């Protein structure tokens, strides 16, 4: 391809609203352009990268035995009502009416459509299992589209859906997809971690993994054990050791979990009385720490929530955060929201900031970290007062103890119980999920088993954010000059730059090299623009093609300058050697593909 | 691919609303499924064919120097207001609002988006010309979606847009695209004709061609000269010879076009007086023909229209039909509608059915066919009366004479003036169009020319109905048993069918053959279903894979049955020979690709 007519203008500056580096570089290097908030055009350079990701995804899906197809973007909302998602999906679901006033949704995912379809196509166990996928534009009206392709409203996604005859079958399919995902992200040269994620009410233990590209700007926090292979989204991660297994939840059983001896409540402590203290205007943990000269971990934080309309209290240590997903899962509720002042006052008699667990009549859910405290400071349920020496074991209901907090860095790994968890930020680029019968039950995807009795299909779903991978790759592969594309995804593999269009030898050498490389099936961008060399080199670094061959003043002696974008050194070498180096490097990347 | 788990169920019958054969076969053979009116899912078989069409389109677009990219489906309607299409596009444009009540349209085409984009990227003549394309899902809320993929509301389209510095450049680009289209449709093995089409107010002569796949169910009529290369959509086709050149239009000039001597009005005719005749309840041409015992071509048909609000009359011969597009173009109006009874009465004083040209005070547009009549019967502008012996040259205003009718079969070709036009039905699968400055003017796509002065870019647009091609191909390639895919588009190239799953030799032979062909890069469907042979053969004919190899009772002697779907004969041959035949046939189709 000749750069002069390539529709790709490099920009000196990125617009002010491009907050993250991948967004800035992709705009500046001419890969994407914004049409509206969260809605982007892929210019030829960006589209070439996207096609490469798409192709890798396709090859690995096919290799895993999945079948490609294409479902419509416009989905009748009747289907969404049937699945029950119509009511809960909220404004992210883009709705529209056709000329006959029939309502449609623009598909953010396709569980409903595929389940309905398969229910009409498959009726016997002999046709199972089957995994179907598509690579398609999806629509999601994000409240805050941002970070370029990372959180868009219209984006390219690979979504796959599996149908198995039983759970054991789903398990096999699930790990087959998991493996395919690893191959895909490896081939994309992405630095990533598969992490355990929250599966909500369905899926069960190990029922879902997210594939997280590691990047500081990631919107997810993941907890990783450096000692074993444990890695989990903070939504899901649990702390080990200190609080016992961290998974057995004592809710509703009335039993008090065993606590390690080192932290048991001592006898003399039990003798200490509660003491009401005057804390005028002191509402937050920070203020308490300041005012009383204590540590945050000596405070019991009490939060009032409404859980499907009912007021409850959740207690965590002052230095911990409530993990609402864990609370929701234990309660099996749809909606969990922090209560407003009115609800708080009604439930506790106190204004926000002075709420405490002592004497509460609403259900109290106590994190293990609180149960393990010998004593603590809590709100007094009275304006401007707190209480010292609240002893959970003595003063509070121990009926609902469990894991209700986010892990913090340094928590013990729940798997090996040796390593201390470390935190990373991640961009979710893939997600595998055991759906079970959630959709097949509601949309009637049934089949007859070998004995002729009717069963519900067991489903899984598997997503990859195809366009999002571009952002993740750029976040991980860039420097102060621009993008550094890995060979497998680069829009072109080689950038041939003649320094002077007026120099006949340079142009002839460049043109011949260009043609020779193209004839070998190598993708080459030839900078045939009438620009100053400085501009050309700057643009070249910005665009980030892996290999650059400059045909300049040494061309007269048959030499060119060879440089890899990822390396600093630039070598002057014989044209022939440069050609061989290119072929070698491109070939190496192809070997990786077939592994 | 193994057929047992292929998501493709064959159906005994097509739904009653599948009116055309391509729709029926594609449903029955398991290529597509309807999700809503005009909205289809492509099952794996259908998707494979679609991908092949897509790939052919992509290769030929790239070969023609066009650059692939991807624009969003969601377009801010501000852009449509800027171009002026928002008001005129009507309910086919699907509109929606995002969560902030901003209005978007789902792109039916992308002239606005691309023009705006290019206006921001290109500012110098040195970066022109450039042609950009995308292969993308489009949305159009058809009033009557029907015929399966032929008239859908969500469909796959290739749309390309070119930007040139001048009209000569556009001309070059236009014909380059025209050639690419021919290669594409040839490679798809489509029987088609490029035809001249109406370009409306812009584009000028030769400014647009449609590529019509020939099929009886086509919604377009095309007029073709068997003597020369002339072919035109009936919207555009003109008749030659009889009415002179057929292109010079005498509107507003007051000149009477020359008419060939053989048809001039003779002197004695001029002496014949108009004669009012009583025709109670006789309103239509057919009724007049019946009641008066005349031929339709002896009648002058008078139609009253409102043209942008103004009443006008159009006269054509009784056996001709008004071509409203021609009238619209001559008048340069946006809206042309047949007038309602009220308007007719006001303009002519007569009820519908008795309107005639004599004495009319509104502008009268006379088709040449009428001007060439020596005399005719027309309405008398009075209830239940007509007039005989209306002599256009004597009795009517000749101010606006032109070509205002559809050609009819047998009309003389306007190009060679020798052949008689023949009619065919066609499915529009492609369209190339000179847009000129329509969008670049309004959306500000300007550049500086070599002398530094600002110019408006000259645009062209080029569409291909990718999904529609499937229907066209099936219409042209099917028999009573099902579809007959051409090799280039077939979902699989070879269908290997072991007759009995229980026969070890058959299964071993079939599996080995399957693997060997797959290893050669050939696409094979292996029917590993536990079905009766009759069912397998029937499904095979229905699906229409070009080559079928049945591994049956002859397998023990190392023989298989070889059959091409397009041929009746079935040969028993050595396995090795069958293998060679397949390789040969597949190779032949690949040679065609590189031509």
TrEMBL record, chains A, B:
What reaction is this protein's catalytic activity?
tRNA(Pro) + L-proline + ATP = L-prolyl-tRNA(Pro) + AMP + diphosphate
Query: Per its record, what are the GO molecular function terms?
Result: proline-tRNA ligase activity
Give the stretches traversing the membrane. none
**Where is this protein found?**
Cytoplasm
Q: Please give the SUPFAM superfamilies that the UniProt record associates with this protein.
A: Class II aaRS ABD-related (SSF52954), Class II aaRS and biotin synthetases (SSF55681), YbaK/ProRS associated domain (SSF55826)
- InterPro entries for the chain: aa-tRNA-synt_IIb (IPR002314), aa-tRNA-synth_II (IPR006195), aa-tRNA-synth_II/BPL/LPL (IPR045864), Anticodon-bd (IPR004154), Anticodon-bd_dom_sf (IPR036621), Pro-tRNA-ligase_IIa (IPR002316), Pro-tRNA-synth_IIa_bac-type (IPR004500), Pro-tRNA-Synthase_IIa_type1 (IPR023717)
Domain Aminoacyl-transfer RNA synthetases class-II family profile positions: 38-486
**Main localization (coarse):** cytoplasm
Keyword terms of this UniProt record: Aminoacyl-tRNA synthetase, ATP-binding, Cytoplasm, Ligase, Nucleotide-binding, Protein biosynthesis
Q: Which EC number(s) does the record attach to this protein?
A: 6.1.1.15
Q: Tell whether Cytoplasm is among the UniProt keywords.
A: yes
User: Any domain commentary?
Assistant: Consists of three domains: the N-terminal catalytic domain, the editing domain and the C-terminal anticodon-binding domain.
> Belongs to which family?
Belongs to the class-II aminoacyl-tRNA synthetase family. ProS type 1 subfamily.
Assembly description: Homodimer.
Q: What does this protein do?
A: Catalyzes the attachment of proline to tRNA(Pro) in a two-step reaction: proline is first activated by ATP to form Pro-AMP and then transferred to the acceptor end of tRNA(Pro). As ProRS can inadvertently accommodate and process non-cognate amino acids such as alanine and cysteine, to avoid such errors it has two additional distinct editing activities against alanine. One activity is designated as 'pretransfer' editing and involves the tRNA(Pro)-independent hydrolysis of activated Ala-AMP.
Record protein name field: Proline--tRNA ligase
């Amino acid at each position: 391809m000749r750069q002069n007519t390539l529709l790709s203008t490099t920009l000196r500056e990125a617009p002010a609203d491009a907050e993250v580096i991948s967004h800035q570089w992709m705009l500046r290097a001419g890969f994407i352009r914004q049409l509206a908030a969260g809605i982007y055009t892929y210019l030829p350079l960006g589209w070439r990268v996207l096609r490469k990701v798409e192709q890798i995804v396709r090859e690995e899906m096919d290799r895993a035995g999945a079948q490609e197809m294409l479902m419509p973007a416009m989905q009748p909302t009747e289907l969404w009502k049937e699945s029950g998602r119509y009511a809960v999906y909220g404004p992210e679901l883009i709705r529209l009416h056709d000329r006959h006033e029939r309502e449609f949704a623009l598909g953010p995912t396709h569980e409903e459509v595929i389940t309905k379809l398969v229910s009409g196509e498959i009726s016997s166990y002999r046709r199972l299992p089957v995994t179907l996928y598509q690579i398609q534009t999806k629509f999601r009206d994000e409240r805050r589209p941002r970070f370029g392709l990372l959180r868009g409203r219209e984006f390219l996604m690979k979504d796959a859906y599996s149908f198995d005859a039983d759970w054991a079958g789903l398990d096999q399919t699930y790990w087959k997809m998991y493996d395919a995902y690893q191959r895909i992200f490896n081939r994309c040269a992405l630095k990533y971690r598969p992490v355990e994620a929250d599966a909500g009410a369905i899926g069960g233990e190990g029922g879902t993994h997210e594939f997280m590209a590691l990047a500081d700007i990631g919107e997810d926090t993941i907890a990783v054990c450096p000692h074993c292979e444990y890695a989990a989204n903070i939504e899901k991660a649990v702390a080990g050791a200190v609080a016992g297994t961290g998974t057995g939840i004592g809710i509703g059983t009335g039993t008090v979990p065993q606590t390690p001896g080192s932290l048991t409540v001592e006898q003399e402590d039990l003798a200490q009385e509660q003491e009401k203290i005057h804390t005028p205007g002191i509402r937050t943990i920070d203020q308490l720490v300041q005012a009383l000269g204590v540590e945050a971990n000596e405070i019991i934080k009490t939060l009032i929530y409404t859980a499907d309309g009912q007021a409850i209290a959740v207690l965590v240590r002052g230095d911990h955060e409530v993990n609402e997903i864990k609370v929701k899962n234990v309660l099996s509720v749809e909606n969990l929201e922090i209560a407003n002042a009115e609800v708080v006052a009604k439930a506790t008699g106190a204004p926000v900031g002075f709420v405490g667990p002592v004497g509460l009549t609403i259900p109290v859910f106590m994190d293990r970290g609180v149960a393990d405290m010998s004593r603590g400071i809590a709100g007094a349920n009275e304006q401007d007062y707190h209480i010292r020496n609240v002893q959970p074991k003595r003063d509070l209901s121990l009926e609902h103890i469990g894991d209700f907090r986010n892990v913090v860095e340094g928590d013990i790994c729940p798997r090996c119980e040796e390593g201390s968890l470390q935190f990373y930020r991640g961009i979710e680029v893939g997600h595998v999920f055991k759906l079970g019968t959630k959709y097949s039950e509601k949309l009637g995807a049934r089949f007859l088993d070998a004995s002729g009795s009717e069963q519900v299909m067991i489903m899984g779903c598997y997503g990859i954010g195809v366009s999002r991978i571009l952002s993740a790759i750029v976040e991980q592969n860039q420097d102060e000059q621009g993008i550094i594309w890995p060979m497998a995804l680069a829009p072109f593999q080689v950038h041939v730059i003649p320094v002077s269009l007026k120099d006949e030898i340079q142009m002839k050498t460049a043109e011949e090299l260009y043609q020779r490389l193209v004839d070998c099936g190598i993708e080459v961008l030839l900078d045939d623009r009438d620009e100053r060399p400085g501009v050309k080199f700057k643009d070249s670094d910005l665009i980030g093609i892996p290999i650059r061959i400059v045909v300049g003043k040494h061309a007269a002696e048959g030499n060119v300058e060879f440089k890899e974008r990822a390396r600093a050194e630039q070598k002057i070498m014989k044209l022939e050697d440069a050609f061989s180096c290119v072929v070698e490097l491109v070939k190496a990347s192809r070997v990786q593909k077939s592994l």
